[in-house]
## 1
Amino acid sequence: MAWKTIKKPREGWAVEPNLLDYERVRAQFSWEAARRELDGLPGGRGLNIAHEAVDRHAAGAHGSHLAIRWMGKRGEIRDFTYADLSRLTNRFANVLRKLEVQKGERVFALCGRIPELYVTVLGALKNCNVFCPLFSAFGPEPIHQRISIGDGRVLVTTTTLYKRKLAAIRDSLPDLRHVILIGAPEEVRAIPGVLDFHQLMDEAAGRFEIPPTAPEDLALLHFTSGTTGKPKGAMHVHDAVVAHHMTGRFALDFHPGDIFWCTADPGWVTGTSYGIIAPLTHGITSIVDEAEFDAERWYALLQDQKVTVWYTAPTAVRMMMKIGTEVIRKYDLRNLRFIASVGEPLNPEAVVWGQEAFGLPIHDNWWQTETGGIMIANYAAMDIRPGSMGRPLPGIDAGIVHLRKDGTVEEVTAPHIEGELALRPGWPSMFRGYLHEDERYRKCFAGGWYLTSDLAKRDAEGYFWFVGRADDVIKSSGHLIGPFEVESALLEHQAVAEAGVIGKPDPVAGEVVKAFVSLKPPNVPSEQLRAELLGFARKRLGAVVAPKEIDFVPSVPKTRSGKIMRRLLKARELGLPEGDTSTLESE
Ligand code: ATP
Ligand code: MG
């Protein structure tokens, strides 16, 4: 089905979008000029993310502005102004200094979305440590793997998580010098060989001068989602804050006074780049919700907190779609101005559903752990072509390339031709390496491009369209088929909640398309529904691209960051080993 373009007005906006004149801003943009919009450390001592995010807003009138409103699982609310956040992160930086944690050493955190996590991230950055998040639902093995690969020196976690996940592996992490626990004092005291977060904080001074920080000093270590294999450790530097700031403006349309909610967990890059850093650099208010997804809780939060800008993910959108639009009518969401999504392709169905449910389309944007920030986006002023990831932001040159057999690269300039999505290196949040994997890092670059391992195409107006991950693309009877296209078509059927599509080896076609489908209640699997879905897909996609087989599954396996793990569907289908499943959401 051809989706209609969603037109945006040219004028008369209640809040004028930041990127109103894309061509002009793009033509005039330079990262040098963008860097000048930030303050830099006082006295020309360099550039530090935490200073740009917190301290520069803490002095003066803006100090009393709300930086983070934390909403606990049980309904508690705690507010942190910029001045509060500055003091607390100073204290934590002093804690690290007193523990003699040296510049560049790595500080890990394993916490849910609790206020101490935010203090840890920003305090570690102030002390010039490299911060690495661990997703709180990881089991002991993935935790061990990441702390040891990442040379963790300090770990901040809670007493509960420590007992459940760390106590047993602590001895096998000899280089982890300090474990700092958040919890009731008597509980912390009862555990040998650990320190008490709150006691250390109480004893630490509230003033801290950030040491000189070079823009190229390492700041963040982020493990990728592990969708296609073993997670890689992408390293980022303090200069990344320039890109966080500018992309917050262009892609998320931050304006002074905004109340922003990023639903991603800081265990993943979206949750730090946009759940922490970018909104703070703009001096706006972020909502942090400790609880997990619950559609009604979310709608109530959007209403009660008067959220203006909301950044979420396709899995969440699909879960909301499953529940329907009726319930949304109970809430007053008039403050909501802009919705964006990242992490996976956003099916056109979902973009349009946003319009129906919230009166706003959902703006898809594309980036990766490696890129550190949003690269391609449907920005606020842009007409949306549902299913497209949008256009490259100012400062980002994206292209479609073909890798020739001799290792050289050819850029495809004609529209509608599939190839690998590539970016011209040089933006500030670009990763500076994969930890301990130099060769792998080098292989990401060829012919002056960074190769993303995603396949895409560009249309005549410069909109980019995601085709699939290079590893997931299906080759059937000489055709290249992106699973996303097939999944999106299936999702258009009213009974389908989720779909994951793979190529199944076939002696004649090479591969045939096979789909795994979960259903929206009250639908239940039946032969009749299977036949109906096969026919439905064939009508939309044609015989070559449509699935030949459909299996019904209770849910499609996903990473904990919400990405469909097609490699796992494939391994299971073929009876092969499942590979690294450390990031698999429990099924
Ligand atoms: P790994 O590299 O370990 O396999 P991963 O690639 O899923 O995991 P991330 O860096 O978290 O880890 O995810 C980035 C990838 O997610 C992109 O390369 C792309 O495949 C997919 N992605 C993100 N946003 C979008 C989007 N808007 N449209 C399509 N795909 C997207
Ligand atoms: Mg990847």
## 2
Amino acid sequence: MKKVLTYGTFDMLHPGHINLLRRAKEYGNYVIVGLSSDEFNAQKGKTSYYTYEERKHVLEAVRYVDEVIKEENWDQKVIDVQHHNVDTFVMGDDWKGKFDFLKPYCHVVYLPRTEGISTTKIKTDLKSK
Ligand code: C2G
């Protein structure tokens, strides 16, 4: 069992999220998503349209996702990697370098973001209609 771990808010799930999750699955055969809690989102300066439970419900239906755990703070990643025996940590490259402290514990991979799509853009586009 080769386990992959990634984190995010995954609000209003869109093709950029799916592209990330699909590629994450290519690094193993079991993908764990650390899904940001509503409280942690506030710490990230983000508000999500859907609640944690709604976002978890959606993510669990994605074929590339095997398990969803709660992301509650910036400091849980080392513990999560060890506790879940993670082989590879994957994030979009807007985070490039930010999680290199995980390199002693697992492979760290930053993948190119999907250009031209984001939850913010969806909201902005809808407002301008
Ligand atoms: N993503 C992407 N392409 C996009 C949008 C998002 O590849 N067009 C990726 C991001 O790089 C991230 C994942 O999809 O790896 C989830 O994106 P967000 O929900 O925006 O996550 P974020 O707020 O960056 O939270 O501790 C890490 C944080 O929780 C990451």
